[in-house]
Amino acid sequence: MKSIGIRFSNKRSRAFTNELKSRVDQYFEENGLSKKGTGEVAVKTVVMLSLVFVPYGLLMSGQFSLGWMWLFSFLTGAGIAGFGFGVMHDALHGAYSSHPRLNAAMGYVLDLLGGSSHLWKLRHNQMHHTFTNIHGADVDLEASTLLRLTPGAKHYWFHRYQQFYAFAAYSLASLQWIFVKDYKNLSRAEMGPYRQITHSRRRVAFEIGMKALYYVNFILLPLLILDITIWQFLVGFLTLHLTTGTIMTLVFQLAHVVEGPEHFVSEGDEVMAESWMVHQLQTTANFACTNRWLTWSLGCLNFQVEHHLFPRICSVHYPALRPIVKEVAQKHGYPYHEQPTLLTAIGSHYRTLKRLGAGAVRL
Question: Mean pLDDT per segment of 10 residues, for the chain of length 363 residues?
Fold first, then answer.
């Protein structure tokens, strides 16, 4: 696999980078803390896994009415999103635990739930985190032709209405993921800034095998075991995935496609104007950082600035790192983007979608 060669000017902000890293290291040393997960993460793991498999187990028991079965489908979908935020995301960044095998084990739960931990690390860790908000390199900006999420994307006439249909489109993300997206990505030789992408036969066989296992567990078995009709199954299955897709996609959009964060266009083989860490400040935003319930539910991923700067530090530490990052960024004259509440962040995202949908916007 070869990269087209986007590089960052890391010498330009060396004073900022050195001070921020030093301050963060000092925080962990003074408090005697590991940068990986704490006891809180272990508790969250049990809770989030329970939110996935307990409702699904009750659903599969066949002992409840259709109304309860629908509720269990909704709770399973919300639980999958919660596990993705609070456990899986850290694990696939290597931040959940200092033990690589434990990170891998938690990451493989994604494969059991219809996704692909391998492709997630390729697209999210390597492409999105390295080249955040750079059109042509950050593959998360290429969610669908239906959506124009960056000024560098081609503009179509229907984008002028995207602020109205975008949230419905987000709900389909999980379904696309398990039925289309992973297969498409597995077959692509070019993706984002990378060329000549290949996967071993063993890897391809594993990916297809895990998809098949998911289809058996979440489609075939419910149809065989439960006394329900096809349309009743579809209502529950769609409820699960529309819930997961809406929650997961919206949270990630609120970090980058809102007012404040910048967007860039690159043709590759060039040097960006700023360092990688400053680039993360330029392109990322926090939201609702004082909302403790939301912070816990989202695995601290409303602290996206801290996450993008330190993706290998466990998310439970981000609230404590926020004042440090904010202080050092402001001291050196760099931006620190954040929205005070979830609703203001959603409103900012709506306005950004409207602005991008209206046509070309200035980079």
Answer: 72 90 97 90 91 95 95 96 93 94 93 93 91 89 88 93 95 94 89 84 94 96 95 97 95 95 81 90 97 93 97 96 97 97 97 90 51
Beta-strand relationship, 2-3 and 194-195: antiparallel
Q: Which residue has the tokens 């007012």?
A: 259
- Report yes or no: 317 and 24 within 8 Å, Cβ to Cβ: no
Distance from C-alpha of 38 to C-alpha of 315, rounded to nearest angstrom: 10
Question: How far lies 115's CA from each of 109, 112, 118, 217, in Å?
Answer: 9, 7, 9, 14
Query: Where would I find the H helices in the chain?
Result: 14-31, 39-61, 66-83, 89-92, 100-112, 117-120, 162-171, 173-176, 182-187, 201-215, 221-225, 230-256, 276-283, 292-297, 304-309, 318-331, 342-358
**Calpha distance 206→18 (Å, rounded):** 42
CB 307 within 8 A of CB 288: no
Q: Convert the pLDDT of each residue in 25-61 to its tens digit.
A: 999 999 999 999 888 888 989 999 999 999 999 999 9
CA distance readout (Å), 4 to 10, 98, 262, 268, 275: 18, 32, 22, 5, 18
Strand, helix or coil at 311? Answer: coil
CA-angle at 345, arms to 341 and 349, nearest 5°: 170
Both tokens of 251, joined, read 């949270």
Residues facing 265 on adjacent strands: 135
**Which residue do the tokens 């330029």 mark?**
282
Closest CA to 150 of 128, 171, 168, 165: 128
